[in-house]
């Protein structure tokens, strides 16, 4: 079981270990259109979302988080560390989504700053990777805005929930690049809208 007790907090948000009971507050922030171009099918009910969280909690090397407002505790979305391989000094960040009201503001850069700080400064990884379906232009732009370096395209790498075959775009941040990425995220947060 990968259930964890890792909580990360700062910049107005808190990343709590995801629990199936979070589904009642998280699922209403989702919809099929928001979920389009994600790698998993949209959970079409609170129970389906809770089952997905339970599956995440059972996946080795995966740390699932519910993203919340640090003051009110209101759910904003979710994110994960996955494919954490301590012996190889690497981890990926992904399976990230936010309710529409929290897109384009401070929530994503704040969450990524907390995750990257933990990965590089606590776990001492050498590499953090991020990926998205090549058709998910919004995610690709968001990853590049973080300061991640594009690494390439894996052709016909994944089958989407609708059965279509898509390419995967890969990005990474290396330990030597982390200080500049951190400075960029901090600058974004100092001028970002509070959402």
UniProtKB/TrEMBL annotation:
Keyword list (alphabetical) reads: Transferase
Q: Which Gene Ontology terms cover its molecular function?
A: acyltransferase activity, transferring groups other than amino-acyl groups
Instruction: Tell me the first and last residues of the signal peptide.
Output: none
Asked if the keyword Transferase belongs to this entry, the reply reads yes
State a single Pfam family of this protein.
Acetyltransf_3
Residues in N-acetyltransferase domain copies = 15-149
Q: Which domain of life is it from?
A: Bacteria
Name of protein: GNAT family N-acetyltransferase
């Amino acid at each position: 079981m990968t259930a964890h007790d890792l909580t990360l907090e700062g910049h107005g948000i808190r990343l709590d270990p995801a629990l199936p009971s979070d589904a009642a507050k998280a699922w209403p922030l989702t919809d099929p259109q928001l979920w389009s171009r994600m790698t998993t099918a949209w959970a079409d009910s609170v129970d389906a979302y809770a089952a997905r969280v339970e599956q995440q909690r059972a996946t080795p090397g995966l740390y699932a988080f519910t993203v919340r407002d640090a003051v009110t505790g209101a759910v904003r979305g979710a994110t994960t560390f996955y494919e954490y391989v301590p012996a190889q000094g690497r981890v990926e960040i992904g399976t990230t989504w936010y309710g529409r009201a929290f897109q384009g503001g401070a929530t994503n850069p704040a969450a990524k700053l907390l995750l990257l700080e933990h990965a590089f400064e606590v776990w001492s990884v050498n590499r953090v990777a991020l990926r998205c379906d090549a058709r998910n232009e919004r995610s690709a732009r968001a990853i590049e805005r973080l300061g991640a370096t594009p690494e390439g395209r894996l052709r016909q790498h994944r089958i989407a929930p609708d059965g279509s075959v898509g390419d995967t775009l890969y990005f990474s941040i290396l330990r030597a690049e982390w200080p500049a990425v951190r400075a960029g995220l901090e600058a974004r947060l100092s001028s970002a809208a509070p959402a």
